[in-house]
Amino acid sequence: MQATVVSLGPARRVGLPRGATVTQGDGYAPLLDPAVLERLREELEGDEGVWRVFVQNFIGYLPERIERLRQTLTTGDFRGAMDAVLSLKTSSQMVGAERLAEMAIDLERALRNETRENDPAVALPHLAAEHLRRIKQCGRQTTYLLQATLKQKPDLG
Question: Are 69 and 88 in contact (CB under 8 A)?
Fold first, then answer.
């Protein structure tokens, strides 16, 4: 599987490191969409402090969100798993973590489809085995990019 590298050149305004790249594997969304981070900054009326706290909170809560997803899937808790995957999807979309959001959408769809005719106690642990490793890896990659973004000084120009 060959990866395509997408340059984030104009993303400099949202504080991504100069020359930062996002690798996009076949069929996957980019790890991070800098336009979403810029839109978030604009919605916060340019308040850098609030923007930074918002991104830091996403990074801080991500391990808990993924752990909750793991716990609910492996114990066959359909309602809990659905709540956890929706939380992961929504929060990822809000910071532009496009690939993580896409993975959450895929898992949400699988949850709905696999539990229509199958016992959640059986179906959900299988979904955990199929999805969690990739979600955890993507979460680590996304966290790395967001942390690098936070280390940069904002480009006000």
Answer: yes
pLDDT tens per residue across all 157 residues of the chain: 333 233 333 333 344 444 344 444 546 789 999 999 999 989 988 889 999 999 999 999 999 999 999 999 999 999 999 999 999 999 999 999 999 999 999 999 999 999 999 999 999 999 999 999 999 999 999 999 999 999 986 665 4
Domains in the chain: ranges and CATH? 33-151 (1.20.120)
> What DSSP line would sit under 12-26, residue for residue?
GGGTPPTT-EEEE-T
Tell me if 31 sits within 8 A of 148, measured CB to CB. no
Alpha-carbon distance 87 to 6, whole Å? 27
Distances (CA, A) of 110 to 46, 60, 97, 105, 130: 38, 27, 20, 9, 10
Residue carrying the six token digits 């955890």: 136
Asked if residue 34 lies in contact with residue 8, where contact means CB atoms within 8 angstroms, the answer is yes
pTM of the model: 0.81
Distance, CA of 43 to CA of 31 (rounded, Å): 22
